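Re: beginner question about structure tokens

> Can someone show what the tokenized structure looks like for a real chain? I only ever see the sequence side.

Sure, here's an example I had lying around. Input first:
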Amino acid sequence: MLDSYSLCRFGNPNDYSQLSEVFKLYDKEGVEGAITGTYVPEKNASSETIVRREPQLYFEHLKREDLSKVVNLPENFPFMGANVTYEGMIEPSETGEFKFILYYAGYTKVFIDNKLVVPERWRTAWNPNSYKFSVNLEKGKRVPLKIEWKPDGTVSYSGLRVMSPVAPEEQGKQSWWSEMTKQLDYYFIAGDDMDDVISGYRTLTGKSPIMPKWAMGFWQSREKYNTADEMLGALKGFRDRNIPIDNIVLDWNHWPEDAWGSHEFDKNRFPNPKAMVDSIHAMNAHMMISVWPKFYTTTEHYKEFDKNGWIYQQSVKDSLRDWVGPGYTYGFYDAYDADARKLFWNQMYEHYYPLGIDAWWMDASEPNVRDCTDLQYRKDLCGPTALGPSAEYFNAYALMNADAIYNGQRSVDNNKRVFLLTRSGFAGLQRYSTATWSGDIGTRWEDMKAQIMAGLNFAISGIPYWTMDIGGFCVENRYVAGQQQWNKNKTENADYKEWRELNARWYQFGAFCPLYRAHGQYPFREIWEIAPEGHPAYNSVVYYSKLRYSLMPYIYSLAGMTWFNDYTIMRPLVMDFTADTNVNNIGDQYMFGPSIMVSPVYKYGERQREVYLPKSAGWYDFYTGEFQQGGEKKLVDAPYERMPLFVRAGSIIPFGPDIQYTSEKQPEHIRLYVYQGDDASFTLYEDEGINYNYEQGKYSMIEINYNEDTKELVISDRKGEYDGMLKERTFEIVKVSKENPDAFDKKSKGIIVKYDGKSQTVKL
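And the corresponding structure tokens:
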């Protein structure tokens, strides 16, 4: 672990270069020094086509002096609906693998040497993305370069930069670079296995508290519920349809338009916030609210910060205005100041906490003072901090902001578990009961695929709770039009058909993430808004939501393990099958806990996918119980409504009752599936689910062990107790073996065991 708050690079310490710094460039006429940029406006636009030579493709940020324009792009050109092409030749001065980074908003394709090296990618105009790829080129050999770009906003971004080849002996070295660090500390964390390494990491950076049990349920959000009636109506829609849910989220702009940071509700749209929250609680759900570190200069909260010198001043000096209404001036508070953090929490405590709000969504916690600026201006906007220059403390704002809320809430109510969600993170974030989500991602199949790898990389970094916007946040216009057409005439056009399948597949994946949460822009994300009851997408989402709730004894036990054992819930295959080198580069399969292997489907229309079954005692198909050997690749069925799930031989999985919310009933009857073929163990963890009494030893653990040789299952003596604990329950033991391929089924019959806390041995 490299201990630096500054901008860092791991690996090559150099940044990507402009094309002209690495290649000889030739335009489409063969003239050296640039490539050709052709800007063709939409048919009905009054502007003329522009053709010009481009010595670099670097249109990646707004002009500091005029934040309505992008640096280096033609002035006053109507980009919305235009077609832009960059084409010419590139000639390398050396042979090797050139690494490129594409920056894009709108629709983009890249061709090198007449080959499509980047198939069409899309990102919404206001929120550009980057994509890395590599191409092998020969010294002195000119090859064609072509980029096809179709912006879909009045302001849009594009860019292509490159990194020269690195010699293999250099590529194999580790390099750390930090922009501004007075003292560079690093830690090498050793362990017997990867879980041991992560435990060491949390020894350094902090334990991960047990999240409230309701946080393990389903979260419904949209950008945004505009009224209390909309929000309550959405929650009631789940209850009326018997679709499990535990949490609903109120996103930004619930305040009066001109009062961002006031923590007040717009009275016209939210006339009685306390009654709204009470109604949510009455429907047995919880509420999370969006809180930004941003304050309009006219609010009393801004003035409280400003008089103490706790506001970053650059945005105010530059009279930056945001995108709301006519645009309002604003500043962000300095979370690096301990007293400023106390004030930030106190303002929340005075305005939000009395309403009974359950969880906090700390948005823009990078801090995102302004989108799409160059890096230097970004540093100017978020500093200087109370601790020093923003260049030195560039990355840790989210950690300090989380500190404010976690320690603030525990100081006023140490009997209610804190839950935070933040868009940015830093080492140690887990100690503040904080989860991170991956931000405003796009709604394409490639975006879904990228989220699988993103979640796995995040998990293996040592922070256990990660989530994403199921379905993607930023929506292609074709999907918006698709739902509008559906709403008008109930016709499932091609785009809307794809939208439904995309969401079905994304929900399937999301149900097996540490946190299960849907969020995004229009189209709305409630499942009945995506597809009607009876549609395969609707059926699939409801199935996996109910399955997750049935798995709650398993999932909550894993949550307990994150505290007691420094466990990781979402697990790259390398964590559990380190000796099997075949899993080293598998980024689209993972373990959910010790037993369930998840293989999401992320291609439109795909009804089969290849799955690798790691070397082990074997695997069982979750849906059929059929046994499969380990160490083999399989082409398996993946019908619309299901994704491949396999259970590791030598597993014990507890399933609870059908419930609509996590606290509806205690699991008095647990169906205990025992997947034979190897020894197995599982510890059922339970506590009160809402408070910190587990820190004082108020919890129970029931260790369950299966011996393959003797075919005996031992349910051990219960250890520990807590208020409201079940004294007696039944376990119904369902065995699955090669000879008895039993599919998961809530109606499966097994051996009934009455359990009162005393050890029981069962012969299977």
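Each token stands for a local structural state, so reading them left to right follows the chain. The mean pLDDT is 96.
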